[in-house]
Amino acid sequence: MDLLLNRCSFVFRQLRKEQTPIRAVNIKEIFNEIVSFLNTIDNQSNGLNVIAIVCNELASVNTLKIFDDPVIIKHPLIIIIGRTFEMLLTKWNYEKQINMEEVDQNCLYETSYLIAYLCLYRNGKRIGFYTNEINEISYQKIFLTTSFFDKVARLIKDLSNNEYEPYSVKYKVADRLVRLCRKLNESDVNLDSVIDATIECLSSRHYLTVFQNIDLKQPTFNPKQSFFIRECSDFIIKYTFKQQHKVSYNLSKIMLEYNKLIFKKHLPVTLEGEVLGNCDRNCVTNREPKGARMNAIGCHIKLLNYFALLPSIRNDFIPTAEATNHIIDKILDILSTNSLIESIMNNQQAFHVDVSVISYSITLLYNLVFHRQLFSILKANKRLLDICLRLQMVKDRSIHFVAQTLSKILVDQTNIDDIKQPRRIAKAYLYYIENTVDEPTQTHHGIKLDGVFTNLTTIIQNDEVKNTIAEDEEGLQLIAKCAYDEKFDHTSIQLPALDVVWSVIFTGSGHKAVKSEVTDISIPVSRSSSSLSQPVDLEFEENGHQTQSVTVDKHDDADHEEQKYSLKLRKKAVEVLNDDEQFMKHVTKLSTSRNIKEERTANGILWRLSNEKAFIRQKQEEEKKEKQRQQQRRETPKTKFVESEAIYQYVNGDYRWNLSESKPIHGLTISYSYNNKELCYKIYNTLQKSKFYRVWIGKENVYGSLPKVMAEKIENSRIVLICMSTGYRASQSCQAEAEYAWKRDQSIIPLIVERDYNPSGWLKAIIGDRKSIDFTQIDFDASYLELINEIDKTVASDSN
C-alpha cells in the first residue's frame, strides 16, 4: 500500500507543475492500480484510508484541466469515490445504530472535498474539436443524484435535531455540501429536500444557541457557527426566491423573535467596543477585534433583508404599541455608530465586516421604506436622514447608492437637478443592474432589480445622470436587454427600462447645436489656441458639404465644448440602440401595441432614433420647394391691371372689401403635462372662444400624442405654448414636443402652470431668456390678457 501511495504522490506532484509530462493516459494507469488494490484488499480501513489520501491529493491539484478528460470522468475510481461517500453518509445518518470510526469520518471529509471541487470547477460541457458534438457526461451527473441530495438533506435535518461538538466533522461536511448546493444551477437539480431541511435548521433552537455561544475574543466562526449562521442563511437567500413567500412566512416571525435576543446580547459590545451592559466603574472597555461577533450580526441582518423584500412580510416589522428598542431603533443605532462610520470611510472592500454590516443595515431600512406605515415611521425619525447624508460620503458604492436613494425618498425631492454626485449615483445604478440581470433572484446585496428601475426612471431626468449612462455603452446595452428579455417582468422591469432608454436618447437636449444635429452634422473639436482671442466661426458639415456657420465667442467656449460632448454621447447612444437588433425588433413590435402606454413609449423611442430626423428632412425639402415656387412667381412679369379696361364697371353703391381689416387666425399648439390638465384645459377653452385662434391640444390620453401627429400640429402652428411644471420637465413626450418646436424655430411662449416652479435642465435651456407668463400667481384673467398681448407681440415680431 505504501508503494502505491508513494507512486500516486509522485504523479500528483508532477501534475502541479506548469510544464508537466503527465497526460490523461498516465492518470488512467494510476487510477487502474488504485482500483485493482481496492478490489483485492481485505482491510476496509486501509481501503478507506487510501481513498481519503487520493481524494486529498486530487483536490489539491486545482489548476489543471486534465480532469475534464472523459477518460478520467468515466473511470471506475470516480464511481467508487461517489459510492463510498454515499455509503459513509448513510452510515453517519444512522450513527446511533452503526458506529462511525475516525477513519470513516476522515474519508467522508476528504471525499466531500473532492466531490464539491469537481462538481463546481471541473464540470464544463466538452465540445468535440471536429464534430462540435457536446459531451454531456459530467461530474454533476455522476455524483449529484437524487439519492445524494436525499442523504445530504437527512444529514442537515439531523443537525437541526441533535447537537454535536462545535468542531465536529459533521458540521464541516454539512457546511461544504450546503455551499456546493448554493452554487449549483437550480435548473439542473432538484433541491427541495435540502431546502426543507435547511429551513428546519434555521428555525431550530440551535440557530439561536450558536449566537449565544460566540466568544467575545473569537476571531472567526467555528464549523458549527459557520454552518448555521452563514451557510444556511446564504443558501436560503440564494435558492428559495421562487418559494420566497412560503419560506419567509415560515421563518420571518421566528427570526424577528430571535433578533430581539441576538441584538440584546451582542449590540452593546459591538457598537464602538463600548462597556458591556451595566458594568460598574471597575469594568474595562472591550477593545478586542469584533471578528466572529460582527460577522454574525452581518449575516443575521442579511437574512432579515431577505424577508423585508416581500411586501406582505414587512408587516411583521411594524413596531407594536408596547414595543421598546424595536428593530428599527437598533438598526439606526448601528448606523449611528461613529467607529463603524469611520471604519467604512477608510474601507471599501466587499468582504470587510464593518462595510457588510452597515451595507445590510441601510439596505434593510431601504426595503422597509416601501411599506406605507413603515415609511411614515422612518420619515418621522430625524436620525435617518442625517445618517443617509453622512453615508453618502463613504467609498463603498452599495452604501452610497442606498443612502442617496433613501434620502431622496425621505425628503420627496422634486428638483431632480439637486441630486448630489449624480455621476457617481448613475454608476451605482449601472453597477446594480449589471450584478442583478443574470442573477436568478434578480437581487444584489438586498436590492431588487425592479426597485432599481423604479428609482432610475425618476433620477434619469438629471442631465448628468443621462450623460453618465450614455457614456457607458455596455450599461446602456444591459438596460436595453432588460427592456426586451422575456425573463424580466413586463410591468416592473421591461417598461421602466424602456422609459430609461427613452430618456437617455434625449442627452444634449437644449444645446444650440442640436438644431443642426438633425442633419447629421459633425462639429470640429480641434481649435488652435491663437483663435481663442477672437470669436470663432464653427463650420457644420454634412457629407462634406457646409450647411451652416455658428459664431462662438471665447466666453462660450467651455459651454460649447460641453455641447459637443453631449451631442457625441447622444449619437453614440443612438448607434448602440440601432445596432441592437433584438431591442429594435421589440420596440417596433410594441409600437403597434393595444396598450397605450407601451405604444406611446415605443413610438417615442423610434421617433428619437430615426423617424424625427427623416420627418424634419421631409419638411425641409417641402419648404425648399415652396421657396423655389415663390421665387418663380416673383420673377414672372405681372400684367398691369387697368380698371377702366375691365369687362365690368363699378356702379354706385358697390363696396370694395379691404381684406386687411379682418384679423388673421393664428395657429397655436399647447404643449402640457397631463398632471396640469385642469389649468391647461382652461387656457385652451378660453382661447377657443376667440375667433382669432385655431388651437390644438392633445386630450386623448395621459401618455401624449403619437410623435408624428404632434410634429404635424407644431408644423401647422405659428406659436407653441409650453406649460411648464415639474411633470412637464419629467415627461419624455413633453420634452420631445418642446425640442421639436425649438429645432424647427417655432415661436415659443412659456407658461408657468405650477406654483413656484422654476425651469431647469433641458427645459431651461430651451426656454432661454424668454419671458414666462405665470398662471398661478395672479388671477386668471390678468394672466390670459398678458398671454394675448404676448401672442400679438410674437406675431408682429415674426411678420417683421
Description:
- The chain is an alpha/beta fold and 800 residues long.
- It folds into four domains: 2-143; 240-275 and 287-412, no CATH class; 461-524 and 556-622, no CATH class; 663-799, Rossmann fold, CATH 3.40.50.
- It is 60% helix and 6% strand.
- The strands form four sheets. Strands 8-7-9-10-11 form a five-stranded parallel β-sheet, sandwiched between helices. A two-stranded antiparallel ribbon has the order 1-2.
- Helix 6 packs parallel to helix 9.
- The radius of gyration is 36 Å and the shape is elongated.
- The N and C termini lie far apart (108 Å).
- It comes from Didymodactylos carnosus.
- InterPro entries: TIR_dom (IPR000157), Toll_tir_struct_dom_sf (IPR035897).
- It holds the Pfam family TIR_2.
Number of helices: 35
- Strand order across the biggest sheet? 8-7-9-10-11
C-alpha Rg (nearest Å): 36 Å
Low-pLDDT stretches are 126-134, 274-289, 516-555, 653-663
Number of domains: 4
The structure class reads alpha/beta
Give the amount of beta strand, in percent: 5-15%
Number of strands: 11
pLDDT averaged over residues: 81
Helix content: 55-70%
**N/C terminus separation:** 108 Å
Q: Which overall shape is indicated by the principal axes computed on the Cα atoms? A: elongated
The main pleated sheet reads as:
5 strands, parallel
